[in-house]
């Protein structure tokens, strides 16, 4: 009988091979004070040189990734390389060495912790990626400081990894790039998240990977036969011949399926019954703008801006303008929807020290926060308006609760536009202003709000949490998180209907838009516009192209009127299986 270990499958593929265990030694990070200026200068030089060596390592594997066609790898590694140049990391660490007279490792660790704490305050799954990037870039410098350079990791890995399943505690994108170049068959890690950059990279490189397999290094022996089933997040040991034959057949089918998915990116966006739909991308950093282009989306449906506000210093208008302008120019004429700062409460940036309310989740956040800091809000609006001179831009207002907030924001936009005009700066007169519908109040009042907005964007993650009154990160109540809850479906249908009545585009930009089954659920509710991570575009596009929208609508309507089984999970299974070929895995 085989032994099965479970984790989280980040790719849906099958891998068959033998175990190679990677157990890098723990880094020792000393902490000590410096005696004189000479020692201070030496430590500053150490950290700068370590960062330089780390960058050269990244450049080397980036060059090889490009030669091998690994565009996503290049983009992720470029993000890490940019962090090594970020003055908020290296220069700030050097400043700590000067001011506190502490060694390089200690200063770097302190600065890293401060930045990570800023990310944690912005409690957002997407921004967790940025925290992970920071951790891995800092880890790269720390390896150099500890004379355990990243290049050593590469020398300890066999040059040919065909038929090899590598098992590690965790892997950085740089590690993963090296492994892919050595043709590793599959990856298992004890830690990791399904939307980490390593996971995204594994998906883009189509390497089967299961993360979160606790104690994998203890339980798996070197050279032991192993099978990965990424669809179920399963790791199988001690398999017999029948199981091996079964998974070999599944592997062949999975390979064919992944090859087929790529073809859908170029296909016109119509369902099987010729209903048009639109796919936008979610993005924040330059590398993600490029991913959106490669995914051939119609534009950026959600550009988050929180990343710029993580530090101790508020970015000025010019800095914001350059960032927004970079996105607009990168999209080559496709529209960019820029969401104004969506932070506050427990997600308060370090640059904004305001009184924390008794319940941060229901406190000063989103647009409420921006309207409480008018000078800062005007600065952001002016920067967005200036970027509209470079290409099509839309403004998205987060966390709406009442119509008065829309009026206030629109008034400020008009004032900023007039100021710019007086300064001789023209802005796009047709610039649209939309609102995120993510509070129950906004959803219930949508028929009065819709005429006040140019488009509607459903923030499904927050809407579900607020309607169900649960924090999905809380393991004690996460089982209640249900996107098919009748209350959720009624509110989404209500928003879609309001959009139809008032001729407003309705986009869904939360997680519901990024999964094939829930995308079909939304289609059945009348949604035609989706904004999702670029990596999810191909499977969602295939799911929509292959389905009959009328059949989806029938299934969803039957469920809403109580004619179905009443089981939301069964509804999603039916939506995924009835209107299209079930993807092999």
Short summary:
With 585 residues, the chain is α/β, with parallel strands linked by helices.
Write a concise keyword list for the protein shown above.
8-stranded parallel β-barrel, 16 strands, globular
Question: What would you say this structure looks like, in words?
Answer:
It contains 23 helices and 16 strands. The model is unreliable at 580-585 (pLDDT under 50). It starts with a strand and ends in a 7-residue tail after the last helix. A hairpin with a 4-residue loop joins β7 (225-229) and β8. The strands form two sheets. The protein has an eight-stranded mixed sheet with strand order 1-8-7-3-4-5-6-2. It has an eight-stranded parallel beta barrel with strand order 9-10-11-12-13-14-15-16, surrounded by five helices. The chain is α/β, with parallel strands linked by helices and 585 residues long. α2 packs antiparallel against α11 (286-294) and α20 packs across α23. The chain has helices spanning 37-67, 71-85, 90-100, 104-121, 125-145, 150-155, 173-181, 197-204, 216-219, 241-263, 286-294, 317-330, 366-372, 374-387, 403-422, 440-444, 446-449, 460-468, 486-501, 516-524, 537-546, 549-560, 568-578, and strands spanning 3-6, 8-9, 14-22, 164-168, 186-189, 209-211, 225-229, 234-237, 278-283, 299-303, 335-339, 393-397, 432-437, 455-458, 505-508, 529-532.
The class by helix and strand makeup works out as alpha/beta
Low-confidence stretches: 580-585
Summed up, the helix count is 23
Cα(first) to Cα(last) distance is: 23 Å
Mean model confidence by pLDDT: 85
Q: Biggest sheet, open or closed, and with what strands and sense? A: 8 strands, mixed
Strand arrangement within the widest β-sheet reads: 1-8-7-3-4-5-6-2
Total count of strands: 16
Helix content estimate: 40-55%
What is the rounded Rg?
A: 25 Å
Which of globular, elongated, flat, extended, rod-shaped describes the shape?
Answer: globular
